[in-house]
Amino acid sequence: AQSVTQPDIHITVSEGASLELRCNYSYGATPYLFWYVQSPGQGLQLLLKYFSGDTLVQGIKGFEAEFKRSQSSFNLRKPSVHWSDAAEYFCAVARTGNQFYFGTGTSLTVIP
Amino acid sequence: KAGVTQTPRYLIKTRGQQVTLSCSPISGHRSVSWYQQTPGQGLQFLFEYFSETQRNKGNFPGRFSGRQFSNSRSEMNVSTLELGDSALYLCASSLEGYNQPQHFGDGTRLSIL
After folding, report:
1. Using CB atoms, which residue from A51, A95, A102 is nearest to B42?
2. How large is the C-alpha radius of gyration of chain B?
3. Which residue of A has its CA nearest to B91?
4. CB of A43 closer than 8 Å to CB of B90
5. Which residues of A touch B56 (CB under 8 A)?
6. In angstroms, what is the C-alpha Rg of chain A?
7. Residue A43's closest CA among B112, B93, B67, B77?
């Protein structure tokens, strides 16, 4: 069965500090992986996606993610966090037929 | 290009009533998916429609149903509302292909009294 695990429910970082949000997936085939961000009262916005090729993918807002097949992970990183990055972050895996599986999310708080 | 539009944004109903939510996808997107989002549960997949056919279905009771029209607009219906149905309902559209990202609307906040 396909599943996505985000082990950290909530993370707090200081503005300017680096960030890493963890995501582990369980999927029998080559995964198609995504990270989304959700601000309060809004829908989800795509940050980045991985399909194949280079395992380090760049996204919007200065985010990047690294696919590690051996660890079944797709962790999201940002070198320097801004206060506006405070939001909920979701990792997702897609399978055929446009069915997406989302993790339960990681809530990010940024302190000045 | 306009994004995914969901109406209404907010809705208040009482137990036992029924409700219909609407979703207009991005132009050219024929796949529309619906999700229920509640605190602590994350996004739970309800169903996906493609070319007016339900292609995938999540693990929700039959009270939750949907349909898609020829212009790809989709509606979701919940009958005999329960308190536990209070949630943010999100609609997402995408191009065909499982490597296509889903584009989300801002959701409909449904509150059951």
Report:
1. A102
2. 13
3. A43
4. yes
5. 97-99
6. 13
7. B93
Tens-digit pLDDT profile for residues A46-57: 999 998 888 999
Contact A108, A19 (CB under 8 A): yes
Which single residue is written with the structure tokens 């601000």?
A39
- Nearest CB to A90 within list B41, B43, B94: B43
* B29-60 confidence digits (pLDDT tens): 999 999 999 987 788 999 999 999 998 888 99
Residue B106 Cα, gap to closest chain A Cα (Å): 4
Question: What is the rounded average pLDDT for all residues in chain A?
Answer: 91
Beta strands B103-104 and B87-94, pairing class? antiparallel
Residue B61 CB contacts under 8 Å (≥ 6 apart), including other chains: none
The Cα–Cα gap between B36 and A40 comes to 16
